Amino acid sequence: MTSEATPATVRSALADRIVDTLIHRIGKDERAARKHDWLEATILTLRDEIIHKWMASTRAAHAAGAKRVYYLSLEFLIGRLLRDALSNLGRNEEVGEALASLGVDLAEIEEIEPDAALGNGGLGRLAACFMESLATLDLPAYGYGIRYVNGMFRQRLDDGWQVELPETWLAHGNPWEFERRESAYFIGFGGEVTGSETGQVRWKPAEALDAIAYDTPVVGWRGKRVNTLRLWSARAFDPIRLDAFNAGDHIGALAGQARAEALVRVLYPSDSSSAGQELRLRQEYFFSSASIQDIVRRHIQYFKDIRTLPDKAAIQLNDTHPAVSVAELMRLLVDHHELSFDEAWDITRRAFGYTNHTLLPEALESWPLPLFERLLPRHMQLIYAINAKVLREARRTAGIGDQAIAAISLIDEGGERRVRMANLAFAGSHSVNGVAALHTELMKQTVFSDLHRLYPDRINNKTNGITPRRWLLECNPCLTALIRDAIGPDFQDDASKLKALESFANDASFRERFGAVKRSNKVGLSNYIKESMGVALDPDALFDVQIKRIHEYKRQLLNIIETVALYDQIRSHPEKDWTPRVKLLGGKAASSYHNAKLIIKLAADVAKRINSDPSVGGLLKVAFVPNYNVSLAEGIIPAADLSEQISTAGMEASGTGNMKFALNGALTIGTLDGANIEIKDHVGDENIIIFGLTADEVAAKRADGYRPRDAIEGSAELKQAVNAIASGVFSPDDPGRYQGLMNGLYDHDWFMVAADFDSYAAAQRSVDARWADKDGWRGAAIRNVANVGWFSSDRTIGEYARDIWGVM
Ligand SMILES: *Cc1c(COP(=O)(O)O)cnc(C)c1O
């Protein structure tokens, strides 16, 4: 056929399919379609293609009788999915062109896809990176979590104060998911247990609801495999009590449905009330029970014999939130499959692995025993029985005395009795892993020292990773193209191949192009910040970035106080050759965390004062970017020159933000904490800026009776900055606002801000000096990119697969 049409008016078959989807599935024609309709039509069209790969993946796993990996996590911080799916399927250009022929800009509709904010921070993002790597490595896997209707709150700043708003990510529906009405599981709460230890035990819950599955496809790199993220929603067992409704109690008749909906409403309901605590425990049991029932059902369907479960299912607990799964599997094995307790325990231990994410004592989950027993009476019995067994083993083990027995016990007997979820997870798993080398070492030495003595082969390390698809190829296309130009495309399939870039660190022309890419990313971010916040940034300044949850151990306060000190220095010595700097901060504070919220307000107050002070002459700009989430991270990280990873040593389990920044060519200023240590080992001491106390030194200082007041008195710069903040220089509308926060530094300073200040400030001045040497800086940045391929989550998942799950 010959055609006179120009390429722009030729519609591809793909464009026709998108229009077809628009008409038949959304019910609009091209003229009526709005951006959201195009987004939905594009996703649905793509999803139709993904489904075939998805089913093929499931069939292949079934045919091979493959062992499956089950990743249980209360959080999946997956962010937007369209760009991810397009990129992994290699369909970016084709879909972009098809949409262009319809007058639609792909980049524009990608931007309006809501961020699936089903997580809070690193732990949830890790789960998302792991899901992508599991599919990429062609491992059959399911992620299990909760389909929160509102998820994590959206953050707005009102005059610098954090305001929490509901995240309405489902407002336009969710074209990615499939509701599986047929996959419903009965979830009970409360009631009573009948029968004896020897006879048939029956749990008769007083309350019940249904868990309904929603499945989202997870596409691996190059579309090799598509796995399932299965998120549970709740539905009332009796949606309406018709008798009550007919009797005129219209609201009361619907209370069951309201209770079910409350269960899946938000991530981390405030636990400052006992009702909030109870809701949280209900959420944990709800998704654990649904997931374990689903795993057992699938196993019986495919393999018939429940005894082979550990050969065919590896269940990983992402922190202790799903730890009640251990008791739930025991319940199903003992009460429903009628196995002996000992056999059930053997199966359970072989099936589970547990990942620990924190050593902070206040973050180790435990539940008041009366609450646990009231909500889950049968599980409480089983936990007592498990505990008796574990403590018998402990007593038979040499060197374990009464104090160690008390620490190993699943029940905390000191004060109000509580159920310790970390001990349950530890006892019920064959593998317990930390998430960076230092963290794993500290697990052995501190919180789990006694359990480690009892089960010395159980603790192992799996240093975290990030998916280089989202965190390089998708978020930084210009850098990706530049790397491809230099070393060819192999690094896209194997991040360790980035190593070949090392030899370009001394190549003047490559450095130049690398600098140009970074600058264009900084221009892009500056435009965003100008538009959204009205703050003008100089793209030639050093972009110094700290984005992460706001927490005292992460020490945003150290960064802000140093910023104040620098501001003071610039004003006192305007004649000096200061390095122009942009300080960017972002992150959410837990809604009940007073100091974290005050730190956000301080950042905003400091920014307001500095940005409007003509005497700094634009040498220093500060911005707190609201509503930090995955999409914002994808915009900010490629534009960063300096990555702030400055936690008190020993307190950040791993960090993954640190890895994302290094992969995008930022230098790290950081403490010897978490994965920073391993990043240093990979990039080399010359290409990272390390400061501050080590974990051992922090511990020793605390033991010796640390006196922060002396540290403050001993540092003129620190004292000046702290006193300026305390006296209201940055809060003239409320001069006492920061007095308490600053007094806290003088009095206890648990996070060692004062102890590390001078070292940090000196490190920052060394950064200034390095920045002046543009070639040197770029060379170091290139060496970072070249040497952090090891932090790919493909490497991490490979290690889990071999060492823990036995699937590779
Ligand atoms: C990577 C990431 C985190 C974790 O950052 P850390 O610096 O390791 O705490 C948190 N939130 C989002 C949105 C992320 O992408």
Automatic annotation (TrEMBL):
Localization of this protein: Cytoplasm
GO molecular function, one term: glycogen phosphorylase activity
Assigned EC number: 2.4.1.1
Co-factor requirement: pyridoxal 5'-phosphate
Modified residues (N6-(pyridoxal phosphate)lysine): K660
GO biological process, one term: glycogen catabolic process
Cited SUPFAM superfamilies: UDP-Glycosyltransferase/glycogen phosphorylase
Pfam entry (one): Phosphorylase
Enzyme class: transferase
Keywords, alphabetical: Allosteric enzyme, Carbohydrate metabolism, Cytoplasm, Glycosyltransferase, Pyridoxal phosphate, Transferase
Entries under PANTHER family matching the protein: GLYCOGEN PHOSPHORYLASE, GLYCOGEN PHOSPHORYLASE, LIVER FORM
Protein name as it appears in the record: Alpha-1,4 glucan phosphorylase
Organism: Sphingomonas jeddahensis
Lineage: Bacteria, Pseudomonadati, Pseudomonadota, Alphaproteobacteria, Sphingomonadales
